[in-house]
Amino acid sequence: MKTILTSISILFLINIIAAQQQYYPLVEENKTWYVVHSFFGSPSATGVYKCEGDTLVGDTTYKIVYVTYDEFPIQWTKAGFLYEDENQRVVFSKYKAYDSTYFKPQLLYDFGAEIGDSLTISPLNEFTDQVEIVIAAMDSVLVDGEYRPRTWFDCEISSWNFWIEGIGSNTGLLEPGFYCTIICPGQDLYCVKKDGITIYPDAYTGECYVVGIDDVFEKKNVFSVYPNPASDYIELHTEQLFTEELYVRVNDLMGQLISHKSLGGSFPCRISVLNLTPGLYIYTIGSPQQSIQKGMIRIQ
Question: Residue 34 in contact with residue 189, Cβ under 8 Å?
Fold first, then answer.
């Protein structure tokens, strides 16, 4: 009897060790990531990310990453390229529509890192190209009914940062360490689906796509921006008087700055968009002291 019990115990331990050694890959085509952007706590938009298709660079096959901000996507925008190696490291290169030669894969995740390791990661971030982090702690979290490793890391201005094996970071697939560079606006991973079923947060049954309600996007009658969609130019109209210097900034959906133009004191003001590739863009009209209006425009 003792021999049988001992054998059962050994088999049980072997199963536990095997489960602990199982690795959940991050880069898979059957997943979608939902990232909520917010201003002062109010959601403004939801970015939906997916990996679809391959591109061969040298001897390495990268997955192509796409993003959309539509609840029922019709058009996806290419965001970059991901590759996950056998050492549980994930590298990422941005995609720049205006520079077809750009390809610069850099470390995005290291799921094999240990406590005390110092890493330089290169997330998709408008404010910096690199973030210095230190692995601070490790624990586990339920994902799709099973515990997976979670790695916490510190940076200069934030300690509430983590990534989860097979899921990504708490601030999105491509943006680990987002709060290492900025406090507001906000950005947080809301949920992850696999084969259309939500696997993170575990047992979550609500909606993954959050409709933006931030009043920053709802300001009316300050500026009229049209035509929208546009192909050659947009015009800015307003009936208000401004004594401060204004600007209009255009970013793509990944947050990359596309153009920045100072505005004169007279309106309407016409701005060329001939250099923009078709797609959705976020425009911001403001002054050095404040953001006055923010919205989206489609270039066709």
Answer: yes
Query: 285 and 161 in one domain?
Result: no
User: Judging by DSSP bridges, how do beta strands 246-252 and 77-84 pair with one another?
Assistant: unpaired
Query: Does one domain contain both 229 and 158?
Result: no
Residue 53 neighbours by CB under 8 Å, 6+ apart? 63, 64
Q: CB atoms < 10 A from the CB of 29, how many?
A: 12
Strand-pairing partners, residue 91, are 83, 107
pLDDT digits (tens, 9 = 90+) for 206-221: 888 877 544 444 444 5
Q: Please report whether residue 206 resides in a domain.
A: no
Count of Cβ atoms closer than 10 Å to residue 47 Cβ: 24
Percent of the chain with pLDDT strictly greater than 70: 84
User: Side chain identity at 54, as an amino acid letter?
Assistant: D
| Residue 236 falls inside a structural domain | yes
What SS3 class is residue 135?
A: strand
- Decide: 100 and 36 in contact? Cβ < 8 Å: no
Q: Can you give the residue range of the structural domain that contains 62?
A: 25-200
**pLDDT score, position 14:** 46
Burial of 284 (0-12, 13-18, 19+ CB in 10 A): middle
